[in-house]
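Sample entry (338 residues):
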Amino acid sequence: MMADTVPLSAAWRTDTGLVRGHNEDFVKVYEPATEDERRRHGAVYIVADGVGGADAGEVASEYASEQTLQHYLAADGRADWGKRLIDAMQAANTDLRRLAAGRDDSRRMATTMVAAVIQDGHAYIGNVGDSRAYQWREGHLEQISRDQSLVARLVEEGALTPEEAVHYPYKNVILYSIGSEKRPPIDLYEIVLEPGDLLVLCSDGLTRHVEDGEIAAIAGDERPDVAADILVRLARERGGEDNITVAIIQHGERLEESTRPTARLATATVSATADAPTAPIPAPATVPPPGPRVAMPVPAATTREHSRSLWPLTFALAAIMVVLILVLWVVVQRATTI
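Predicted structure, serialized as tokens:
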């Protein structure tokens, strides 16, 4: 990118998938063209996953992404990169709520968002909802962001095991999003990037079908553009039950292929040749298709087909927690106005 800085190489892909009628995901990118722009803004990458169905979700994700970048760039001169990003996301939240209030219909508009500013060997990541940010280094993939979803909260608090969470009926319920409330809690993360590191931003349409180990292997073995193509194709081959979006940003040069640590899948080989046919890669255990994404908690079901793996106490804790979250959401919505 710039002669005196570590260069970035990035690629991003978004795909409707095989089930949804339209794409509610959106990617927005700002890559500085000059050294002056780099010093003032860094590079910005945004992935958003619209909530709400019909056309409201796709409008929300695009509008919120555009407004976030606009507010971020308008704060020229600020070098507190992380807070500057979070402030821009909060301003976009206000803009989206105003847009929704002025529409003729009653549909609420909301979107998840994971956004990253890369500047001087650091990545500043803002996240709300359940889209994700990962860091890849020397064959290892680490999830940086924390899912703001009901199922993640239940796992954190011990009400569900990770195995039970795979089949949880309300996996599509997110706790917070851009547009859902007056000022959503947006998490901020800061990480150091070494030469050769990768930053992966994606919507849950990818992670639903592709496991972390597979993302690590593919992203680590291929160029960002090739890896993004393969990951999207893999999610489609396994059902494509949601919109699929991934952005891969490489920070500097990686080691040569012969010396670079790899984590290639033992179950299959992924071809890097775009026009060569590739055999489908075995999918993880089948999980039920997701329902429409919603930004409001709903009461948990009292019975499930796989309930024999849960203790009665777990059901009681989960039900109480969901009811409390629902009550809190209703109180907040009644108490807050645009």
